């Protein structure tokens, strides 16, 4: 629906063709649900449904990946719609389509909950403290101004951090100096707690009446190590067949905790908003071919230069090539928006 050359907002690391990836079959696969049809993305339909409205992508770099995909899909309507410009700032990227007064927003929030470097109890200053029971105020203050919110998180729970609940340290990731104390929760449980909190915070916000979408955990496909230990997805050119699927306990557990957190949070609903879980984890576990892998850089040495230990250069088996599988996520978002807003129009008439 677009090419890497036709969309100027693609982050360099996701521009797989521009970085020299030799194959491109991965661009052409589409997901066919077993019990329904998923329409191709219709840029004009999206802009019309979102006339006068704002959609915000909030979360980590995978949220940015999805937001850029949406912009690229909308760019194809540029023959009749002006090319939007970023009218935002570093805190909030804000693209504006003047013809329909539609805004596409991105806000960074690594964990979706409050985080601070200040010292707490036996955790010194500098190590990130993730307050699992407090939403990230940096974006929550703007939530009432958004009509559609798409949330993305999870992968930062693999990074070094300290988990805080009720101002008490309850666990940590890659940090736990006091072996005499027992950590109460691990990073997967912390992820579930953060999801419950942010969902509850949105469905109880007195001034939010819009549509919220929680996109489920995006699967990565590192083999032979992690992102920083020589993990690779080199040479993956086709989706996995069902018999090739290998169970990934970490992805399964992160997905399970996210689902549980969502269901617990939604039970606290007290406002007029609507909240939808967009579950992509199982489907996109097949798409090990859709990541940049070694083609995350234009520098050929970063693609081919092996380290002194014989390991391949660092690869990106987490984010998604553009064009690529990530575009399907926005087909799903459009379908959710269509059902929400077309239903309201018909009921009001």
UniProtKB/TrEMBL annotation:
Membrane topology (UniProt): Single-pass membrane protein
| Molecular function GO labels | O-acetyltransferase activity
* Spans annotated as Disordered: 291-312
Gene Ontology cellular component? Answer: Golgi apparatus; membrane
The Trichome birefringence-like C-terminal domain extends over 38-335
Q: Where in the cell is it found?
A: Membrane
Q: What is its main location?
A: membrane
One Pfam family here = PC-Esterase
Keyword field = Membrane, Signal-anchor, Transmembrane, Transmembrane helix
Family of the protein in this entry: Belongs to the PC-esterase family. TBL subfamily.
**PANTHER family reported in the protein's UniProt record:** PROTEIN TRICHOME BIREFRINGENCE-LIKE 18, PROTEIN TRICHOME BIREFRINGENCE-LIKE 9-RELATED
The identity of this protein, by name, is Trichome birefringence-like N-terminal domain-containing protein
Originating species: Linum tenue
């Amino acid at each position: 629906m677009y090419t890497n050359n036709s969309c100027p907002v693609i982050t360099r690391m996701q521009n797989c063709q521009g970085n020299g990836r030799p194959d491109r079959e991965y661009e052409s696969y589409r997901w066919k649900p077993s019990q329904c049809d998923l329409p191709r993305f219709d840029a004009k339909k999206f802009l019309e449904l979102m006339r006068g409205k704002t959609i915000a992508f909030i979360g980590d770099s995978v949220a940015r990946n999805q937001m850029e995909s949406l912009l690229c899909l909308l760019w194809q309507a540029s023959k009749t719609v002006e090319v939007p410009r970023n009218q935002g700032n570093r805190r909030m990227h804000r693209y504006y389509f003047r013809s329909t007064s539609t805004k596409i927003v991105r806000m960074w929030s690594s964990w979706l909950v409050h985080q601070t470097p200040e010292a707490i109890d036996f955790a010194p200053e500098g190590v990130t403290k993730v307050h699992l029971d407090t939403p990230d105020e940096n974006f929550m203050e703007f939530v009432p101004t958004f009509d559609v919110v798409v949330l993305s998180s999870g992968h930062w729970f693999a990074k070094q951090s300290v988990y805080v609940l009720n101002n008490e340290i309850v666990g940590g990731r890659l940090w736990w100096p006091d072996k005499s104390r027992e950590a109460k929760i691990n990073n997967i449980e912390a992820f579930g707690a953060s999801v419950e909190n942010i969902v509850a915070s949105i469905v109880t916000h007195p001034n939010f009446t819009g549509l919220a979408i929680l996109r489920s955990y995006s699967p990565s496909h590192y083999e032979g190590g992690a992102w920083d230990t020589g993990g690779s997805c080199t040479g993956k050119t086709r989706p996995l067949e069902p018999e090739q699927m290998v169970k990934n306990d970490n992805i399964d557990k992160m997905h399970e905790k996210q689902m549980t957190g969502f269901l617990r949070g939604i039970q606290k609903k007290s406002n007029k908003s609507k909240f939808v879980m967009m579950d992509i984890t199982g489907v996109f576990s097949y798409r090990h071919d859709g990541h940049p892998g070694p083609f995350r850089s234009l520098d050929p040495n970063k693609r081919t230069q092996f380290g002194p230990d014989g390991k391949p250069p660092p690869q990106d088996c987490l984010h998604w090539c553009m064009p690529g599988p990530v575009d399907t996520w926005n087909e799903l978002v459009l379908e959710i928006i269509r059902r929400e807003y077309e239903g309201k129009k018909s009921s009001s008439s």
